[in-house]
Amino acid sequence: MSEILDRLAGCVAIVGSGLAGLMAALTLAPQQVVLITRSELGAETSSAWAQGGIAASLGPDDSPDLHLADTLAAGDGLCDADVAASIVREGPAAIEALQRHGVRFDRASDGSLSLGLEAAHCRRRIVHVEGDGSGAAIVRALVEAVLKTPSITVLSGVEVRRLLMDGDKVCGLLCATGSGAMTLPTARVVLATGGLGGLYDATTNPVGNYGQGIVLAARVGAMLADMEFVQFHPTALDTVRRPLALVSEAVRGEGAILVNEKGDRFLASEPGAELAPRDVVARAISAEIARGGGVFLDTRKMFGAGFANRFPVVNGLCREAGLDPASDLIPVRPAVHYHMGGVATDAFGRSSVAGLWVVGEAASTGLHGANRLASNSLLEAAVMGMRAGHDVAGTSMERPRQISGTSLPSPADISPVQPIVSRHLGVLRNAGAIHGAIASLLPLVESDGAASDPALVGLLIAVFAALRQESRGAHARTDFPLRFAYAERRKMCLNKVLQIARSTASHPLARSA
Question: Model pTM?
Answer without folding.
Answer: 0.89
